[in-house]
Each structure stands twice: as structure tokens, then as C-alpha cells.
């Protein structure tokens, strides 16, 4: 019965549309509604727009016009594959899911350490063939001097029988390899050590395992976990994704070389309504762009904390500020461990002893590029705020902070000048050139004056750009060479 009634309705509609001579807004609206609706209500007899009364109002031959101007035209869908990388798709997916932009810090963290696509996760980014060169890759002398510092601290600690030697973000493991190789002659020191490498990249873990010449001990004891040992000094080595996973209960000597600069930073920009966080969004042409947050964000609490530590005049002259909550929290974790278990931490990085403004940069194949250009293909890093590290550590009781001093001052006080002279006594001409170049890069400033090679390869000194700071337990006194 219902089917026959609906067929009769449709026949009546067709008959009326073919024989009408006038148009009506009522008809237009009704046609659009009826053709687009499939609800039971739209199909009921009470919703029929053609009846005998309407037919009487519109004589035969009336034409009907349908206004579609208000309809939304969907863009043509392309089935062609996009050129976006998997990380770019992932970032755009996060922004779409959130319904708005993400912080610069979250963007930076995804780009560097995303478990599948992160810059550090699946490749070797260090050295001449990588994207940048770090101090340990420049010369063996850097790791040797850090080893001198660690042994001096161990002496000040009273020569404990068990010590955790921890490195955060060890890269290829070059620094630790040079440290252990040079310290292997001092058996009482090396026999007390258990090395802990805090590294989240499986690729770099394998490189570190290789460069430390590690092997797994043969142990037939039931229930005893086999140890991984470095052949460089016969020292057990363990790997962890986080510092919190390193066993506590014994003194720790912690080394953080070029680790803090890779921690994600939040950027704030001064606007008419106050400080606004800088965010990363996707524009209409599907490109990444920077926007400002319309309201305060959770990171604003860290901004307020950082501003409280600074002089008002220092803040007034700035149009942008970078804050690194993870650096503040990590420093507090380090300080708590040192307070409870004893020991100390050495932080060496490029940065400032004050508020950092706009320092975030991207480096690909040793060249600076746009931060938002093809994320995941370049390293992202920012200046380290050493003043913020100091204040974060000093919030913990029984902790003292020393420095920062320049890397040139630090290495010079530990004896790098004597070390390079000793090495030059017994080397080839080629090795001598390499030693001089490496020495200049570690302690020099600007371009090397002795360079006679191509201009594009001139060694640039990092001696004043990099700073060194120590955090120690107060009971141990002032560490070398900060006296």
C-alpha cells in the first residue's frame, strides 16, 4: 500500500514539473529538501509538496528553476600519492586530530625522537658524513680531558668502590671510548665504574656497542644475568632510554655533552595582549606555518618561573623568549640523585648564561635551513639557558653549582695544552696537522689563523661558544677546575 502511494506521489511530481509555467521560492526550497532527505518524515504523505491546491496555482507549462548557490562544493579528491614523508603526515595528523596547532616543543620532540621517524632514531647523524660534528668527533683530547675531570671528582668523593658513570645522549660513543681508553691505566678508578649509556636510538646504541668494543660475558651460572663488558677497560656497560632507569643507591658521575641543546623548547613572542606561545599549524596550502596561541598555554607556567629568575630589565628588552621545561625538570632529577647518592654532573653545551631569545635552528649536511622545511631531514637544536639550569639545581638542598666557564677555559685548566704538546712529539706530519686543527676547534675562537687549505674547510673554534657547568654534592667541595 505504502509503495503504491509513493509511486503515485512521484508520478504526480513529474507530471507537475513538466507542465508548470511559473517558478516559486516555495517549490525551489521543497525540491531541494525532498531530493536530499531520506528520512521517514520526508517520505510521509504530510510532507508531499504537490497536491491538488498547488496544481491549481500553477498552470500547465510552468518552468522550474533550482537555486544551488548555497550548496557546498567539495574539492576534487585526488588519488595521486602525496610527496609528504611519513613524519610530515604524522605531524599533520596530530594537528588535525587536535583541531588546532601544536607547540614548537612538541614539533621539535616529534621531529627528533619520534619512535619510528625521528631524526636521531634510525641514522648516524654525527661526523663529517653526518649533519654536524661534535667535540668528541673533533679530537680524542676532548674525551681524555673529560676523563681527567671524572677521575678528579672521584678522588674528591673519597674513591668510592662503586660508581655509576652515566652519559646522557652519547652519540656514537666516541667520548666514552676516549675516556675509558685514557683511564684504563688507572685500575683503581676503572674497577669502581659501571658505565650507563642513556640513549633512545637503537641505531646509535649499536654504534656505541661497537665503538666501546663490547662483548657479552660467558656465564654459566643459573639465574645470573649476563653482563655486557667494554674491552677498553674491562668495565660493565648498560643501556637505558631514561636517566630514571639507571640504578640508584651509589654515587653517580653524570656527563651531558651536547645533550641539553636537543631538548624541546617552547617559544614565546611578545604581542599586544602579552606573551603568546608560538605554535606550529598547517596553512590552507598544506604547508607548516607559525601562529600565536590565542590564550595562555600550560608552558606559560614555566615562562613565569623563568621570568621570576631574571632581572626585569633583562625581560623588558626581549621580544621573544625560549624556555625548556624538560631541561628544568631533568636538572632537578640530576640534582636530587646527587643529593641522595653523592657525585656530580658535568654539562657542556653551546648556550648563554642568561635568558635565551630566539635561537632554535635546523642543520642539514652542515648547513642551516628553515626549521619547518621537510621535518625529520635536519637536526633541530637551541641554545642552552645555563642560568635556568643553575636556578633549577639550586632549588635542591645540599647542592652546589659551579660555572659556567668557557670550554676553552675548562679544557685549558685540565691540561689540554700539555696533552697536545705530548702528542705532537710522536706523530707524522699528517697527524700533526690533524692535532692542531682539532685543538683549535676545541679551544680556539673564530677561524684558525694557521689554516692554508680551502676557505670552505677552515676550522672554526668552539672554545668560547661552548660553556661548561658542574653540579655537585656540597659535601665534596668545589670540583676541578672551578676553584
From TrEMBL:
Main location: mitochondrion
This protein's GO CC annotations: mitochondrion
GO MF assignments: protein-arginine omega-N symmetric methyltransferase activity
EC number: 2.1.1.320
Reaction catalyzed: L-arginyl-[protein] + 2 S-adenosyl-L-methionine = N(omega),N(omega)'-dimethyl-L-arginyl-[protein] + 2 S-adenosyl-L-homocysteine + 2 H(+)
Annotated compartments: Mitochondrion
UniProtKB keywords: Methyltransferase, Mitochondrion, Transferase, Transit peptide
Lineage top rank: taxon: Eukaryota
UniProt GO BP: methylation; mitochondrial respiratory chain complex I assembly
Family annotation (Pfam families): Methyltransf_28 (PF02636)
Family: Belongs to the NDUFAF7 family.
Function: Arginine methyltransferase involved in the assembly or stability of mitochondrial NADH:ubiquinone oxidoreductase complex (complex I). Acts by mediating symmetric dimethylation of 'Arg-118' of NDUFS2 after it assembles into the complex I, stabilizing the early intermediate complex.
Name this protein carries in UniProt: Protein arginine methyltransferase NDUFAF7
Source species of the chain: Salix koriyanagi
Amino acid at each position: 500500500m505504502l509503495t503504491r502511494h509513493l509511486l503515485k506521489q512521484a508520478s504526480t511530481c513529474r507530471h507537475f514539473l513538466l507542465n508548470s509555467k511559473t517558478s516559486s521560492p516555495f517549490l525551489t526550497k521543497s525540491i531541494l529538501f525532498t531530493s536530499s532527505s531520506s528520512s521517514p518524515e520526508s517520505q510521509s504523505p504530510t510532507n508531499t509538496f504537490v497536491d491538488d491546491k498547488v496544481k491549481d496555482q500553477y498552470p500547465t507549462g510552468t518552468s522550474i528553476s533550482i537555486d544551488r548557490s548555497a550548496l557546498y562544493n567539495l574539492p576534487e579528491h585526488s588519488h595521486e600519492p602525496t610527496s609528504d614523508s611519513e613524519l610530515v603526515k604524522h605531524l599533520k595528523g596530530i594537528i588535525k586530530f587536535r583541531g588546532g596547532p601544536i607547540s614548537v616543543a612538541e614539533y621539535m620532540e616529534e621531529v627528533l625522537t619520534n619512535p619510528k621517524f625521528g631524526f636521531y632514531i634510525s641514522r648516524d647523524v654525527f661526523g663529517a658524513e653526518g649533519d654536524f660534528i661534535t667535540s668528541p668527533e673533533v679530537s680524542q683530547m676532548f674525551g681524555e680531558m673529560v676523563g681527567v675531570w671524572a677521575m678528579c671528582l672521584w678522588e674528591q668523593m673519597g674513591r668510592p668502590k662503586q660508581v655509576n658513570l652515566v652519559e646522557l645522549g652519547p652519540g656514537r660513543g666516541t667520548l666514552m671510548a676516549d675516556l675509558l681508553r685514557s683511564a684504563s691505566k688507572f685500575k683503581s678508578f676503572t674497577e669502581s665504574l659501571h658505565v650507563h649509556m642513556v640513549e633512545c636510538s637503537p641505531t646509535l646504541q649499536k654504534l656505541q656497542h661497537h665503538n666501546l668494543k663490547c662483548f657479552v660475558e660467558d656465564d654459566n651460572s643459573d639465574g645470573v644475568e649476563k653482563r655486557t663488558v667494554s674491552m677498553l677497560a674491562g668495565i660493565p656497560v648498560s643501556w637505558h632510554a631514561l636517566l630514571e632507569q639507571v640504578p640508584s643507591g651509589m654515587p653517580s658521575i653524570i656527563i651531558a655533552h651536547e645533550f641539553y641543546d636537543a631538548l624541546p623548547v617552547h617559544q614565546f613572542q611578545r604581542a599586544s595582549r602579552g606573551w603568546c606561545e608560538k605554535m606550529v599549524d598547517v596553512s590552507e596550502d598544506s604547508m607548516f606555518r607559525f601562529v600565536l596561541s590565542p590564550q595562555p598555554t600550560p608552558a606559560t607556567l614555566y615562562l613565569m618561573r623563568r621570568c621570576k629568575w631574571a632581572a626585569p630589565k633583562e625581560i623588558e628588552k626581549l621580544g621573544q623568549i625560549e624556555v625548556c621545561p624538560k631541561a628544568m625538570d631533568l636538572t632537578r632529577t640530576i640534582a636530587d640523585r646527587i643529593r641522595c647518592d653523592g657525585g656530580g654532573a658535568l654539562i657542556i653545551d653551546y648556550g648563554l648564561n642568561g635568558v635565551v631569545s630566539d635561537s632554535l635552528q635546523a642543520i642539514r649536511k652542515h648547513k642551516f635551513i628553515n626549521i619547518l622545511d621537510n621535518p625529520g631531514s635536519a637536526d633541530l637544536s637551541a641554545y642552552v639557558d645555563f642560568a635556568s639550569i643553575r636556578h633549577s639545581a639550586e632549588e635542591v638542598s645540599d647542592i652546589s653549582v659551579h660555572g659556567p666557564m668557557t670550554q676553552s677555559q675548562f679544557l685549558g685548566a685540565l691540561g689540554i695544552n700539555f696533552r697536545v704538546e705530548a702528542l705532537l712529539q710522536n706523530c707524522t706530519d699528517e697527524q700533526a696537522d690533524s692535532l692542531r686543527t682539532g685543538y683549535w676547534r676545541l679551544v680556539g675562537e673564530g677561524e684558525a689563523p694557521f689554516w692554508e687549505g680551502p676557505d670552505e674547510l677552515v676550522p672554526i673554534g668552539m672554545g668560547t661558544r661552548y660553556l661548561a657547568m658542574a653540579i655537585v654534592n656540597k659535601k665534596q667541595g668545589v670540583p676541578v677546575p672551578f676553584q
